[in-house]
Design brief:
- It contains five helices and 16 strands.
- It has helices at residues 2-15, 24-34, 102-114, 248-252, 291-300, and strands at 74-76, 82-87, 90-96, 122-126, 130-133, 155-157, 164-169, 172-177, 180-184, 198-202, 208-211, 224-227, 240-246, 268-271, 281-286, 317-321.
- The chain has an eight-stranded antiparallel sheet with strand order 4-5-12-11-13-3-2-14.
- A hairpin with a 2-residue loop joins strand 8 (172-177) and strand 9.
- The protein is globular and about 55 Å long.
- Mean pLDDT is 86; it is low at 1-17 and 30-55.
Length: 325
């Protein structure tokens, strides 16, 4: 009976027009790739192997000290900003960014704490694009009572929010703020604005956690997606509220399909502050305004001294896991 209900729900979804992420350009990218285009901007940035001492984190690059060796070079993620996503492929740790999208982060905290997402399918998963979930209609779950959210596509950045610039995209700088890849107007423009700040927006590099919506820009509610490629056309048009810090490999393995049958399900989505202290993961992100990161960036340059694109520079993360169950 459960299978019949699920099939019917998936058919209804396929015929309807729910919250979804614009995939037209993703399909174009797939077509190019099938023809032999291997542009690395569409290839997920993942670690080749995993540090056995920290099963959810990639091994630290050579020369980068651990948090114990250089605590002032690292930033520990607060439990209230960490989400634990569990699927049959493993656990994914997502850091939320309230500085960029406070209302969307609060919504994810509320829904995760209520258990709303548990048992929901990843109903729209497109290769080298994203994995989307959160549609309660597919499992006959009452819709959330939360109202639609106003888009938080951009945020106002103060020059005091240090941005490490590594490149440029059209008229904006690209780089990192607190370990998140962003684009931003130059700091110099802050002297010309009333609030002394400039416009900035989080980038949809692989591992971005964002909110889906309809054509109405202020319609996001409970559906979210995690990018597996770099859909740059979503930048500044969809609200990115967080970033995968460990376990992106589990996201990459979610079954493809729009919809897939049977789909992969969300076995758990929990807020870090709700996890028992003895079972919490401790996650550190290398401070992107630190000397250690500056040295790490120098190592990323090619033989001509050119820096790779911001999405091709994985920010070092260190994970200390107490209990994987």
């Amino acid at each position: 009976m459960r299978k019949i209900i699920l099939i019917m729900a998936l058919v209804l979804w396929a015929c309807g027009a729910p919250s979804q992420v614009d995939s037209a350009k993703a399909q174009e990218n797939q077509a190019r790739q099938s023809g032999g285009d291997t542009d690395a901007s569409n290839v997920p940035v993942t670690a080749a192997d995993v540090d056995p001492n920290h099963p959810l984190g990639a091994p630290l690059p050579e020369g980068v000290p651990t948090p114990a060796q250089a605590p002032d070079q690292w930033r520990e993620v607060a439990p209230e900003n960490l989400l634990y996503l569990k699927t049959l492929h493993g656990i994914t740790l997502i850091e939320m960014a309230p500085e960029f999208a406070p209302n969307h982060v609060q919504r994810m905290r509320e829904l995760a704490s209520s258990g709303y997402f548990v048992g929901m399918p990843f109903h729209r998963v497109i290769k080298n694009f994203m994995a989307q979930a959160g549609d309660g209609n597919l499992v006959k779950r009452p819709p959330p009572t939360t109202p639609p959210l106003k888009g938080e596509f951009r945020f106002r950045r103060s020059p005091s929010q240090t941005m490490v610039v590594v490149g440029e995209d059209r008229s904006a700088n690209t780089g990192f703020v607190k370990g998140f890849p962003v684009a931003s107007q130059p700091d110099a423009l802050a002297t010309m604005t009333v609030d002394g700040k400039v416009q900035a927006w989080a980038l949809h590099c692989p591992g971005a956690a964002s909110m889906a919506r309809t054509n109405d820009p202020d319609s996001a509610n409970a559906q979210f997606y995690i990018t597996t490629g770099y859909p740059e056309w979503l930048n500044g048009k969809y609200t990115s509220w967080g970033r995968v810090r460990a376990g992106q490999n589990a996201v990459q393995e979610i079954k493809l399909g729009a919809p897939a049958y049977p789909p992969d399900m969300i076995d758990g989505l929990m807020l870090g502050s709700k996890v028992a202290p003895e079972k919490r993961a401790r996650v550190w992100v290398l401070r992107t305004d630190s000397p250690a990161f500056a040295k790490y960036l120098e190592q990323q340059k090619d033989k001509k001294g050119n820096m790779p694109g911001v999405c091709k520079i994985p920010v070092p993360v260190y994970v200390q896991w107490a209990d994987t169950e």
